Amino acid sequence: MENLYDLIIVGSGPAGLSAGLYGARAKLKTLILEKGKTGGQIVTTHDVANYPGSVEDASGPKLIARMVEQCKSFGAEMIKDNIVEVNIDGEIKVLRGEKSEYRCKAVVIATGATSKKLGVPGEKELTGKGVSYCATCDGDFFTDLEVFAVGGGNSAVEEGMFLTKFARKVTIVNISEELTCAKSIAQKAIDHKDIEIMYNTSIKELHGDGILEKVVFKNNVTGELREYEADEEDGTMGVFVFIGLDPQTSLFKDKINMDNRGYIITDEEMRTNIEGVFAAGDCRVKALRQVVTATNDGAIATITAEKYIENKLGHLSEANA
Question: Where's the FAD/NAD(P)-binding domain (predicted)?
């Protein structure tokens, strides 16, 4: 069968690149498809200090560049294309993109998830320069500074408490008059000596010359706007946004089992409910979404896919020999 890949990976974040590396090293004909910027969310992180083996000047772009180089050195192909339709039920999976059509024996879905944005002026420009979406990734860079954690759910409040390990003060910015997290978690935050809670408050603007220097808050009851500037000695502060994630799985909606939030359901070996289809990284149901867990998922997905191809589709390999 002409141009039949053993393995196609949709997405080129850490999970997809890990899957691609393992596929290429196993001598599988491997293709990584990406519609946008290679690397996923991690390329917006300027420092990656919590990935094992990271060097002092490790950054998201540098880490991804090394992963891409590894994949290519073992023979993995990488193509930029936006997949618009998939047929994944048969032995041969078909993915149709805007540029071409691709066929394979197994698919690893590694499309990731994106943090929900505030959607306010200055957010995009100051992401990675004071605005963050990951306390575990970036909390250490705000040691002894003041930070604001936006959101009132479990994740937001728990991440806010985590940030007190580094920041001298954490303010939780909550859109309504009550936190929506579990009452036990809310009480811990209320009782915490280094946490303040701003109720009925939204962030309307973010300002700074290359680094976050000023936040404009809105009182959602009175409509009053208030500007807050970073301490002069600090020069900056942090805004951590924890208002949810959007899994990038719409392409596979109604084709594969997902939870009610759109995350793909897999077993521990990354199998989905469709034979020959696997999922890895932030797009699947899991407890922790980090680079280290994404690369783990990618490796497991490809090893499982390799066994599937050998055991279930050996006749295709023989026919194509």
Answer: 5-298
User: Domain check: are 138 and 186 in the same one?
Assistant: yes
**Percent of the chain residues past pLDDT 90, beyond the cut:** 78
For the chain, the first-to-last Cα distance in angstroms comes to 9
- The reply to whether 137 belongs to the active site is yes
Are residues 4 and 320 in contact, defined by beta-carbon separation less than 8 angstroms? yes
Q: Do 81 and 183 lie in a common domain?
A: no
User: Of 211, 241, 271, at which residue does a domain stop?
Assistant: 241
Contact 101, 95 (CB under 8 A): yes
Q: Of these residues, 71, 134, 181, 283, which one is catalytic?
A: 134
- Helices marked H in the chain: 14-25, 60-73, 123-126, 135-138, 154-163, 183-191, 291-312, 314-320
Q: pLDDT for 125-178, tens place per residue? A: 999 999 999 887 889 999 999 999 999 988 889 889 999 999 999 999 999 999
DSSP 272-312: -SSTTEEE-GGGB--S--SHHHHHHHHHHHHHHHHHHHHHH
Q: Which of 71, 81, 104, 137 is catalytic?
A: 137
Among candidate residues 223, 241, 259, the one where a domain is terminated:
241
Question: pLDDT (tens digit, 9 = 90+) per residue, 204-247?
Answer: 999 999 999 999 999 999 999 999 999 999 999 999 999 988 99
**Domain of 167?**
123-241
Catalytic residue among 6, 138, 282, 297: 138
